[in-house]
């Protein structure tokens, strides 16, 4: 649903319509195909957006989600243990897909999981980072492999640094003593500090966590890293998106992260531009994008958490101007391959797995989800995007 009235001062807004003048009108997810004119004196006629694979809509602003398989991702909510404090099994809350560099038919999922059966409502300080594996393709289902961190660590984002030849794991949290019961503590008791760790293999071992941003600093939570490396510029620099789409930058992964941009729109709680859980990337043209959990239904429907849950923001440069159209990029209603349709109560922590052919085509969306009627029992859901994933899986021998 598009919202006509933009309430936040200073928000960069582009009308969503069939006609386009620039690639910004196509959300930088495609190009504006302009119609030729008969003379140089004629005013160019408006064009139409030609969307990149994985995106659709008049302005290429919506993620083209394909039907999902009924059993996918990582769902271990039934994995109960008599020693658990809580009844919610090994609930999880979103993660990142990585293809094994040596064994291309092996896929890893690095995700947040909640210890002791405590579930989502006990995420702080019960969350820790675990790694799961799938040999049935990137959609899963994934099966627990090993523990990456102790509690309290949450919201992992993993990138490969080509210059350093290392995997970099960004999380929020601090080292916490072993829990004695399920509970939910505030960020003042267990801070959301952003830390980074490195490893030469996705299977570890990982270096000790180094805190790079203190949660007492504005917006310093929910990291979204992206390497600034290119073939023409093999730099060690890292861009880091955080809450509310603020942007930090460092000259190396374990260096000092400096704030270089804060968005002009108002992303405080209970505003129409209230977002969290940013996922940052740079596309094949060098443009910047972020996918966010949009809180618009909480604002407009008195705390409701569905179905409009996804927002897309974009810019030519890291320092902006960034554009946020306040329209739904995806929602929490899922169509499945068996023809069934289900609306999830919560769908957050978005992350995208891209093609490795240089096109950076979005192939799969991962997110943390809960079913209707559930509060703490959560899992990690994976849904294919567009149709390029079919060729990708076929090439790997999964179809």
Automatic annotation (TrEMBL):
It comes from the Eukaryota. Keywords: Signal. The keyword Signal applies. Residues 49-60 form the EGF-like domain. InterPro entries: EGF (IPR000742), Glyco_hydro_beta-prop_sf (IPR023296). Residues 1-19 form the signal peptide. Gene3D superfamilies: Laminin. This is EGF-like domain-containing protein. It comes from Pseudogymnoascus verrucosus.
